[in-house]
Fold this protein.
Amino acid sequence: MNESENIKEEILEMLADRRYADLKRRIDSMNPADIAGLLAEIPEEKVLPIFRLLAKELAAETFSEMDADMQEMLVRTFTDKELKEVLEEMYVDDTVDMIEEMPANLINRVLKQSDPATRKEINELLKYPEDSAGSIMTTEYMYLKEDMIVKDAFARIREVGEDKEDIYTCYVITETRKLIGLVTVRDLLLNSTHTRVGDLMEKNVIYVNTLDDKEYVAKMFDKYNFRTLPVVDTESRLVGIVTVDDAIDVLQDENTEDFEKMAAMTPSEDTYFKTSVFDHAKNRIIWLLVLMLSSTVTGMIITHYENAFASVPLLVAFIPMLMDTGGNCGSQASTLIIRGLALDEITTKDFLKAVWKESRVAVLVACVLAPVNALRIYVQYKNVGLSIVIAATLVCVVFIAKILGCALPMLAKKLKLDPALMASPLITTIVDACSVLIYFNIALRVMNLG
Amino acid sequence: MNESENIKEEILEMLADRRYADLKRRIDSMNPADIAGLLAEIPEEKVLPIFRLLAKELAAETFSEMDADMQEMLVRTFTDKELKEVLEEMYVDDTVDMIEEMPANLINRVLKQSDPATRKEINELLKYPEDSAGSIMTTEYMYLKEDMIVKDAFARIREVGEDKEDIYTCYVITETRKLIGLVTVRDLLLNSTHTRVGDLMEKNVIYVNTLDDKEYVAKMFDKYNFRTLPVVDTESRLVGIVTVDDAIDVLQDENTEDFEKMAAMTPSEDTYFKTSVFDHAKNRIIWLLVLMLSSTVTGMIITHYENAFASVPLLVAFIPMLMDTGGNCGSQASTLIIRGLALDEITTKDFLKAVWKESRVAVLVACVLAPVNALRIYVQYKNVGLSIVIAATLVCVVFIAKILGCALPMLAKKLKLDPALMASPLITTIVDACSVLIYFNIALRVMNLG
């Protein structure tokens, strides 16, 4: 943390002193991601002067690492020549990512400064639906033909490799661009220069379709340990590749989305500070309203048992503890199930197996919580009846909470809904109503009230 | 889903009919991860016969993809020769991952069948602390010397590349194994065969230390889009590399851990079904007990205001709604902050900025929730005083919940505790007590009770 502060001070000082050669040497030795991070920290008017000192390729790499706001600011201030140079060095998928965040007039400017072939590719990529494999792929992949020999393959890699996002996995395609195999540069290096690519290639290629969900694509990387994955169209023609770094971004985004949904929020597109106060409020209010109004049911159940707590007011004191414990038990179960479903470790076929597991866990948990609480209440109030009521209620509440927490996400999945919606907040609200109902019914019977 | 069922049936049929050649042809065309998945689904006694049909290299790759239980089962049943063959083909980091889950007698068997050099490496790797970079790295990396020319480099890659986990990034080291640079195979391919490696190499190498936390290592991959990352010891000597597939596993595990902690559970090492009922209960009980006993505070506050709800019993009916809304508001804020801290999008320096943001969000949220509820209560009970009490309480509760939800995880981070511990369950419990206290105080004043 302090180190990056120091570099920032050092660089701003060099800029103020117009020591441009020193400045250039200093930043040219840095990693693009770090330069982008640095530029995000300094005053806007100083970004372009520093950016202009970067070597051409490094400038484009740094530009790709910037967030959308800074890219937009730079595109606005770039000369046509500067914009053209950056675009030439950028990978098409990064250009598309940038364009997707931009206002229309800037998109036109970017398209105008791209060369015609790239412009066509950009336009193709922009057509894919937002969460599809097509939207995260790049068209800059290495392809070979099956009757090439290793020597030809290397010649081709040397010729066009510079512009490809990944050269280490080369896909083998037919004249009609059908994907028929892959060879790695490792295979090429470890075989004699006259071997036919067709004889070397791995024929069982795992691929995805352009319209597959990007989360599915990301999971393929997690499962198969690939560095790149080919994307084919409906006629099995190779149209692009997804690289592992984009897959990691998708995985992290999907995890963030799940965290947000599980806390009863509409997922946000942006980081915490980039999201406006108004959008934050908007993302949170709907679920809060729904849950707030649902919890009136619990209130109405309580009102129904007014006589019970009119005669034993102490009963009210245990409502929060019962509600909280129920909610916590439910959210423990639902979190494990939702996460298991997300990682494909649990499927809807495991429904009964999971319910059976949660039942047994519930028994163990209840066997600890109920006696502890019963004892505490007895010590504090010397009231055996009350101890029994609370202990018995706890057992039921723990059991119901664990079963609902386990069953509801799986039912959601079965109904093709997002299991993450069945997380703690909703389950807490449902369990609350059950808890209160059970509580007063047990109290009425054990304590002979009402 | 159905497809994998079909393959399973097909393969079991071939095995039953002793059509071994067909069977071999069928599975040899499959991906190791898929074969491992398939073998996990079939009866244990049929695993070894099928496994024995696999080509040597594919067998080792499949073995690496299996879960610990199946690996253990196979190691028990392998002949010495089979075990030796599999171990020869496996990468050292995968062997270490396997050993870490095994009982001592099997570890000895594995070490005995490994060749002496590998055995030494395994023993070295086993020494690193559990969550360190050293524990997830492999020692099978490609290294070059700075005075080699490109031609020598390729000769070396051809000679030893077969056994390396990654050959595309070659690290340049000195005689004393100090890391001084890196070249990629792409650089080697795109430059003339007589270029010196020392002239080609990137000198600003980003690396990690053997004792760095593996979560930090995984984040480096996310940030820099690397495929491999070098690991050095305290004397800057290169000792291993971490590959991106292992980094993805770490990221996913860390996310799962955060989900579990945020639902008040001790993270589990294993998947949902692999964790025993007893361990599940153990992971959940401690926090449940702590939170259950803490929520008695809320109960005691309620008892303190017994007179208030004795005169207006309806007051009790709104406790669940206030508690739930407070809990949900708090967990929304805490989830966003915890996730932001985990992704380094928020740092503890942003404390005031975050609190200020949450305050404004709280105002907007309260401006919607309070009137809606006030109106609903007025319509239902025609009681202006009650409407005012609930609306005023809601405003305070939303505000406090948002501030606590935002502040507590950041304070935890500042105190070097895990922010994920300050998630919904704990914040709910704290907010509950505040809500009830505020509620009765407002009620006493507005409704002239007590």
User: Anything to note?
Assistant: Chain A touches chain B through 112 residues (CB under 8 Å). Chain A has a mean pLDDT of 89. The CA atoms of residues 227 and 244 of chain A lie 5 Å apart.
